[in-house]
Amino acid sequence: MADAKIVLKQLGGRNFVKMMQFRTVLNNVGTIMAVLRLQMFFRYLAFMFNRTISILVFSFTLGACATGWAQQSYYEVVDSALVIDRDVKLDSLLMKHIRVNRANDGLEGFRVQLFSGSGTEARMQANNLRAEFLANHPEIPAYLIYQAPNFKVRLGDYRTELEAIHLQREMAYQYPGGFVVRDKIKFPKLAIEVESEEEEEGPGEYVPTD
Questions:
Q1: Once rounded to an integer, what is the mean pLDDT over residues 139-163?
Q2: In angstroms, rounded to a whole number, what is the distance separating the alpha carbons of residues 106 and 186?
Q3: In the chain, what are the domain boundaries?
Q4: By percentage, how much of the chain surpasses pLDDT 70?
Q5: Which CATH code for domain 106-187?
Q6: 145: closest CA among 123, 175, 121, 161?
Q7: 169 closest CA partner among 112, 109, 130
Q8: 3-class SS at 122?
Q9: Nearest to 114 by CA among 166, 74, 171, 70
């Protein structure tokens, strides 16, 4: 019995030693795996870093090339001669349009006619009437018009007949013979033209008050 116990103890001791050796091997394997994983991680970081640098370098190079191509294309367009192929009839139509606009210095509208007469004294009468009207109503334009054989005095530049009728009724007490007629009126002044005229005229004369 004593010999059997000794044998069992020896076998148990040997198994314990083998187990410890196995654990040591497992620990070494785990350490090696950890080291390998760490190496793989650093390799991945190095790969991503190199890839990022490559992408940045490529983008910079591509942007520089694109800028150079754009500048080259711009100078090619600027330096190149522009040639327009068009029909000769377009030029004739354009010239005709210019001549018509120059001849028609104005647009269709309405005015109030105060005077119409012919003869040796008609021009003087028309001038006197126009001067008298402008002295009393400087804000309303008055025109001396000659349509053979008559000299005429007409007022205003109105786009609509109602505006001309309104002026004719206001002047009826001074000029009862006035009436509305169709005429070629002047284009209305732009705001910038009115401002320019006001600047040229300057401020009005200062009149001191008591």
A1: 93
A2: 5
A3: 1-78, 106-187
A4: 59
A5: 3.30.70.1070
A6: 123
A7: 112
A8: helix
A9: 171
Q: Buried b vs exposed e over 14-46: b needs ≥16 C-beta within 10 Å? A: eeeeeeeeeeeeeeeeeeeeeeeeeeeeeeeee
- Render pLDDT for 154-207 as a digit per residue (tens, 0 to 9): 999 999 999 999 999 999 999 998 999 999 888 776 666 566 666 666 554 444
Residue 163: in which H helix or E strand, if any? helix 161-170
Structure tokens at 52: 């990022």
Q: Residue 95: what pLDDT? A: 77
136 alpha-carbon distance from chain centroid: 46
132: DSSP letter: H
Question: 51 in the Ramachandran plot: left (φ > 0), alpha (ψ -120 to 50) or beta?
Answer: alpha
Token look-up 């053979």 returns 148
Query: pLDDT tens digits for 53-62?
Result: 777 776 767 6
Above 80 in pLDDT, residue 131?
Answer: yes
What six digits make up the tokens of 1? 């019995």
Query: Measuring CA to CA, how many Å separate 110 from each of 18, 46, 89, 174?
Result: 124, 88, 36, 20
State mean pLDDT over 113-142: 93
Residue that has been written with the tokens 């309405």 in this structure: 110
